[in-house]
Structure formats: C-alpha cells, structure tokens
Amino acid sequence: MKLTPDDVARIAGLARLEVTPEESLAVQPQLEAIFGLLDQLAAVDTTGVAPLAHPQECFAPLREDRVTEGDQRELLQSVAPAVEDGLYLVPKVIE
Amino acid sequence: MGGPLDTVAGLARQLAAREVSSVEVTRAALDRIAALDHALNAFVNVDGDGALAAAAAADAARARGGAGPLAGVPIAHKDVLMTAGLPTTCASRMLATFVAPYDAHVVARLKDAGTVLVGKTNMDEFAMGSSNENSHFGAVRNPWQPACVPGGSSGGSAAAVAARLVPAATGTDTGGSIRQPASYTGVTGLKPTYGRCSRYGLVAFASSLDTPGVFARTAEDCALLLGAMAGPDARDSTSVDRPVDDYAGSLAARPADPSRPLAGLRVGLPAEFFGDGVDGEVARAVDAAVGELRRLGAQTVDVALPRVGLSVPVYYVIAPAEASSNLSRFDGVRYGHRAAEYRDLADMYRRTRAEGFGAEVRRRILIGTYVLSHGYYDAYYLKAQKVRRLIADDFRAAFGRCDVIAGPTAPTAAFRLGDKADDPVQMYLNDIFTIGANLAGLPAMSIPCGFTGDGRPIGLQLHAPAFAEARLLTVAHRFQQATDWHARAPALPPA
How far is the C-alpha of B430 from the C-alpha of B412, rounded, in Å? Predict the structure, then answer.
C-alpha cells in the first residue's frame, strides 16, 4: 500500500499526535512496509466466519447495583498535571 | 541450592523452617541488585525501605504462625502493573513521574500471599516491543551476553530472574512478552489462559490479548505463584469465574510409573513450528527436548495449524487498534506528562502525546488509528477478528488429537542490541510462534531446553487448552525433573 504525506498527516491528526515533516518522511516507508504485511489478510476467505472479540466467548457478568467506591477525588487528582478546587485545568475551549 | 538465592519453593521451605529470615533473604536480593543491576538495567525502581519493612512484617507473621505459603519471598513486578504508592511508569516518559493510587489485582493477591515487593522492572514502553530497547529508561542487557537483548516486552523481569536478582517476577504477555524473554534469558515463563488472572490495574495495551503471568526458575515456582495470582475479579469483566486448580498439588502427585511420568500424554508437533524459518541450533535443541518428552513416556503426534502463519498480520491489526483506543486516555489532563507549551486544547493533546510517547508507541498508535478509521474498519479490524477465529479453530482442532502442543518459543536465540531496531517488520515477524496463544487465549509456557554454541539460551514452548494450566505446568515440571537446563545460571559474580 502506498501512503502519501497527506495520509500520514491525516492519521496523525485523528490520533492527536504531532508529527513533524521529518518524522513523517521517516515513518511513511515503515508504515507502508507494515501495511504490506497486514494486507496478507485480504486474501483469506472468511465467508461466514464470525469475528472473535474475546477468546473465552463469555458474557460480561452483571454485578449487584450498589456503591462500592467512596470519594477518592483527592487521591486520584494527586497525579494530575494541573488541578484547582477539585477541577482539572485545561486550556480555554470556549471563547 | 540453599541460602538466599534459592528458588521460590526452596525459600518458602527455608522460611517455614526458620532457617533464614525474610529480612536476610530480602537484603541479599537488594545487595545483589545494587551490585549487578547497573550493568543489566533490569529495574526501573527499587524500593529498599518498603521491601525491608514488608520482610520484617513477613518474619513477624511467620513467628506468630498462620502466615501465607509465600510469606517473605522477595519478588519484582513489571512496571506495567499498578503498585499503590510506588511509581508505575510503563517505561514511558508519559508516566515517568506517575505514582499508582491503587494495586493491580494480581499485585494485591501476591501481597496477600505474603510476597515482598523489592522493585519494578524495566520493559518496552507500554509493553510494545520484542527486545526491551523501547524503554524511556534505556535498554535491558541479557545476563548471558550483555551485547544481546533480553527479549521483550517483559525484558527486565526476565533478566532479573535469570541473573538471580529475585527468584520470581511478574510479567504480562500480549503477543509473547513473557515467553520470548523467558526463552532468551533461560528462565521459565508462564502465560496463563486469558481470563485466568485479572487485568485490573494492568495498564492496558491490547485488552483482548493482555495477560498477566510470571517468570521464575522452575515450573514448580510458576505453579506456586499462579496459585496465588489466579482467580475471578469483579473489576475485570473479562476475568472468568471458575475455580482455581491446585497447581502445586498437581505437580506433587506421584506418577504411576516414575520412570515414565508422562505415559499417556500426547504431544502435538505442528509442522508449521518446525519449518525453514527456525534457526538450526534452535531446531536441534527443540528436537532433543521433544525426544526427552518421549523418553519420559509421552507419545508424539503430528498436528496442523495451517493458518498460524497469519498470526503476525492479525496481531498487528488487533493489537495496535486496541492500543490506539486504550492510549487515547493519555491526554495530559488527568495524569501523566503535559507539554509545557501549547496554543490551545487540541495543540496540548498533540504536543503532550508526541513528547510523552516513544517512536514505537507512536508508530503503533498511527497503525491502530488507520485500521479503525472510516472506510478501513471492515477491511482490517473486522477482517483480523475473523481470521483470529480461524486460528483459534486450528488450535481447537489440533487439541482434538493431542494434550499439549510443543515447538520453539522463538525462531532464534537472543539477537544483538540494535540488530532489528530500524526494521519494525523484522522485529514483528520474530513473534511468529508466540502470538497464536494470545489470539486463541490459551495458556503457554517457555522452558529452558538448551544453548547455542556461543552460550545463548534456547526455549521450548508448550501450549495447552484453555484453563489446563495444571497439565501444562506438570509436563514442564516432569521435564525439569529430568533435565538441568533450567538450573544453569549466567556467569555473574556470586552474591
């Protein structure tokens, strides 16, 4: 599969990853080689085969509907880059 | 071997008999890490004070009576498993300063059993890699040959056990990340059935494949650790509610005919695992190991896994797809690295993630994002899930004719640092024999079975049907009772 620099930029945009032009040039042939490997799958006949998502084919069990976790806001926010008054700080998104 | 460098089973016996204290054993492990690990880089964080406090508590519990069977045994955890109050970095810049707020389920279970945590082991960043070269904290060296890789992604745990820094360590296995490094470093590695051990607190890479497991020197030790780790957990919806077998008890059972302890066992040999792609020295060692299984009474049968060759492309669609989704949580808001400079929210995400993730992680996020993107989902992700079922069906059919499946763990012994670093496709193809067990969710082990002429370890891989860990461990144990490959140690200074 051939990829263009625009393809790499589009994928990087979807992935929320900054990719520099130099990096894009380096990664493009690597991705093409990897997709060359992945494209082997196209030749496999999978007519009537159901996709397998979980190896044991079990169903998610239901648990009792009751509160099991107390307030851990302070503990969990202690690892955040920026918090104030119990809120996560992010750059302004509404003008 | 007596003393503080004994196996888990040996240490448990010595500790129970009060021949040694956990403080002595733990101090010996810490001293050995201090003396040797600067050359290996197997640990990213050593918690000496915490370990000695836990060891003293274990000694006190032993003195009171009623301590768990593993009370006082020092172990290490792969740094992808959350350890409350200790850094849990996934060997990534993204989490370089992250301190886990809670314990992973398997970490808590092993703590409850009385094990003493001495530190966290190095790994490929977010468990993505087969060489342990993709670590923010630098590559790990193979204790047998420092110019060679220890394998990955659980390379630090493998190297730590091989170098006798600790008797056992946890790992995680998504495509071979326990078995391949076990093979490369001459230790015993167990990847349990998917669902046997909870993934709660295992920082997710590929959720439908990730499996916690263990490294130790013997199958007997793996049985002891799995017995403590396994079991259902309501916090992991893929954890299977099924009784845990008595693994150590299975190993201790006396065979009817001690000269032929594997009588009645059918060992399947898939032609696909014994083809041209296998290095000659590896093939000879694995053939000799299969001969040993026959000598112990097993019969061998030819089986086929015709679509196992498609494992690599299936894996490198499914694993990056699930990774791109799982790693979207690293956005610089709730935890982890945040870029210092940015124009707006979207720019903060892009820069944070570009700075926080290493090259291989970024590459896999790009692959995963592409295969899940509009117009490609059916052609890649859905197609890969269908071929995944065909591969699982191949294993099911093969297990209709045999009890375990044997073959090499990896096509070659450990390669040199840098050899495959610039060629991701060659690196990925190295996983050809290990990925099948992850796709099918089966338990599998790597056990030492020989060396190359220049002294690099070779591993024999055994697979069993889902939840047949007791059988798998028993076969490995019988092999280790009759051979001494697992008892060989690399030439490092004694403790």
Answer: 8
- Say if A11 falls within a structural domain: yes
Per-residue pLDDT tens for B340-382? Answer: 999 999 999 999 999 999 999 999 999 999 999 989 999 999 9
Task: Specify the pTM.
Answer: 0.97
- Nearest in space to B95 (alpha carbons), one of B359, B366, B358, B365: B358
Residue A17 resides in a domain:
yes
Domain coverage including residue A24: 5-43
Q: Which of B136, B104, B80, B85 is nearest to B327 (CA)?
A: B80
| Subunit contact B380:A58, Cβ cutoff 8 A | no
Q: How far is A8 from chain B (nearest CA, A)?
A: 8
- What's the pLDDT tens digit per position in B437-494? 999 999 999 999 999 999 999 999 999 999 999 999 999 999 999 999 999 999 986 5
Contact B131/B124 with Cβ under 8 angstroms? Answer: yes
Complex ipTM value: 0.95
The total number of structural domains in chain A stands at 1
B312 touches chain A (CB under 8 A): yes
Contact A9/B at CB under 8 A: no
Domains plus CATH for chain B?
8-262+464-487 (3.90.1300.10)
Please report the number of interchain residue pairs, chain A to chain B, with beta-carbon separation below 8 angstroms. 169
